[in-house]
Amino acid sequence: MGAGGTTRTRRRAIPWLLLALWIGVLALASPFASKLADVQHDRVTDYLPASADSTQVARIQDRLPGGQATELVLVYHRDSGLTAADRATAARQVAAIGRQHELTGTPRSVPSRDGTTLMYPVTSNEPGTDEKKRDAFVDDVRGVAHDQGGLTVQVGGPGAMATDAADVYNALGGPLLYTTVAVVAVLLILIYRSPLLWLVPLAVVGMADYLSTGVAYGLNQAFGTTVSGQSTGIMTVLVFGAGTDYALLLVSRYREELRRHERPYDAMRAALRGCGPAVLASSGTVAAGLLCLLAADLNSSRGMGPLGTVGVLCAVVAMLTLLPALLVLLGRRVFWPLVPAYGSTPKARRSLFAAMGNSAGRRPLTVLASGAVLLGALALGALNLPGAIKQQDAFVDKPESVAALETLAKAYPERSAQPIDVITPTDRAEATLATVRGAHGVAGAQPGRSGGGWTEISVIASAPPQTAGETATIKELRHELTGSYVGGPSAQQIDLEDTNSRDRLIVIPIVLVSVLLILIALLRSLVAPLILVAAVVAVWGAALGIGGLVFGPLFGFEGTDPGLGLLSFVFLVALGVDYGIFLMHRMREESLRSIEGHGTPPASAALTALRTTGGVIASAGLVLAATFAVLTNMGLVQLVELGFVIAVGVLLDTFLVRTYLVTSASVALGRKVWWPGRLSRTPDPAPPAREPEPVS
User: Into how many domains does the chain fold?
Assistant: First the structure.
C-alpha cells in the first residue's frame, strides 16, 4: 500500500479508535459514577470550617451516647389559645409516634405562657447516622402530627431542618441536570440552526458529566475529598457550561476550515491546531483558579475546588477528543442545512461585533473611561448587600421546620428557640457549668450526655437566635471557657462568617497571582495579563453590586451567604479570564501576521480579533450564563445568590468588558499591549529590493 493509502487508512482509523477508547473509559467509570450519591453528604460538618469550635462540637456530639439521635420539636398552636381538645389531640398524636418508633424517653409537653402553643421535644436513636432513615423518620412523624380542626401542627428541630435542607440538595441531582440539559439544548438549537448538529456537543458534554461523577467518586475514596450537594451541583453546571463553550469554539473554527480543506479529517486537524491551544490554556487557567480553593478552611469551599476542577478537565478532554472524532465521522452533513462547502466563501453579513469594535476603536480612551465609571458605579451597589443570612432565612420557600422555629420564637420569647451547645472535659464539667450559668445573657444551662471524657452542656440564651445579644453571649462563653468548645446552630453561623473572611484574605490573592502568572506565561506579556485580570476583578465588583441592588428589594432575601464573595470571585475570575484567552489568542495571531508583513496593522489586530471571535464568545457567554442561572431556580438562597452573581458577571464580561473595554485598551496601547514580548517591538523595515546590475 502506498503512502497515500496509508494516510487515508489512518484518517479513517483515528476517529474510530477515539470513539472506542471513550466507550471503554465510560464503561470503566460506570460502576464508580453510580456510587457518587452514596458518598454525598450534607451534614453540618461537611460545610463547617475545619478548625472551628462548632466543628469540634459537632464531631464530639456524634461520639457521645445518643449523639446520633434525631431531635425534633412538635409545635401545636392556635392563635386564639389552645383548647382542651387541642391538648388531647396533641397527646394522642405524640403517643401514636411513640408506638410506631423507638423514642429516647417519654416526650413531655412545654406550654407557652400565653396559652397559644404547646411544644413536645421528641428524640429517637432509631435512624442512627443514616440520612435516608432520618428523612423517612421525619416524614413519618409529619404524617402522624398533622393539622386538625384549626389546630396548626408543625414539626421542627434540628432533624427536621436537616431533612428540609436535604430535600433541596436532592433537587441538585436530577432536576438540576434536566434543567441544565434543556437550557443548553435550546441555546444550541438557536445558535446552530441545525436539526442534528446541536445533538453532538450535547451528547459529548453529557458523557463528560458522567465521567466526572466517576472521577469525583475516585477522589473521595483516594483522598477523602468532601462531596456535598452543593459541590456536585456546581460540578454539573461547570461541565455543561464550560464544555459547551469549548464545543462552540471548536465547531466554529471547524466550520471555517471545512471551506479551506476538502476532507473533514484535514479540516479538523487545522481547527485543533488553531483553537486547541486556546482551549487548553483557558481550561488550565480555570482549573488552576478552582484548585486555589484548597487553601480555604471552609470544608464546603475546599471540597468544591477539586470537584470543579474535575468537571472542567473532563469537559475539555471530551471536547478535544470525542467531539472531533464524532464530527469527522459524521462529515459535512452534520451541518445541514447550512453545509460549509469546500472552496465556498461565507455570505458577507453586517457583523454586530464589527460595529461594536469600530465604535470602540474610534474613541478608545473615551470608551475605556466610560466603561470604568459604569463598572465602578455598579460596584457601589455591593454596599447595599444585606448582612449575613440567618439559618431560618436560608430557604427560598419557607419549609415547615423554619415555620416551627418562628412559631417557637414568638410563643416563647423568654428563651431561645435553639440551644447553644458547650462541650467540656468531664472532669471539669461542674466548674464549666457554674461559669456558664454566671455568663452574661445566659437564661439557663443543663448538663446532658457524657462519654469518652467529654460532657455536653445545653445552654439557653436570653436573646433570640442569631441576634447581636446571642452572638455576644457565645463570644463571652468562648473567651471564658478555656479547653471547652462552644457550638450549635448560631455558633456555626458565626464560624462561617469568620472563616469566610479569613478565606477571602488568603484565597483571593492566591487566585490573582496564580492566574496572572499563567497568563504571563501564555501570552508572553505583562501588560495584556494585567488588563485581563483588572477587567475580571472589575466585573466581579459590578456583579456583586447588582446583587446588592436586587437581593433585598427585588428578591426579598433577608441576608447574604457569607461565602458569596469568595466563590463568586473564584468563578468569575477563572471563567472571565477563559474568554479573555480566546480573544487575546486570536489577537496575538493577527499581531504575528502584521509582523510577518501580511494581515492587519497592529492597531487593528484587536478589532479583527473581536470581529472574528465576537460571535462565538457571545454564544459561549450566553450558554455559560444560562447554565449558572439554572441555580437561581434552586431552593436555597446561597445557590440563588451565587448563580445570579456569576450569570450577571459572565454577561457583563461578554458584552461589555470583552467587547468594549479590553478591545479599547488594546487599540489604545497598540503594540505596547504585548510588552515586553517580541510583538511589542516595531519590526525592522524590509530592505528595498536590489535592482539588477546592467549587463555590460
Answer: 4
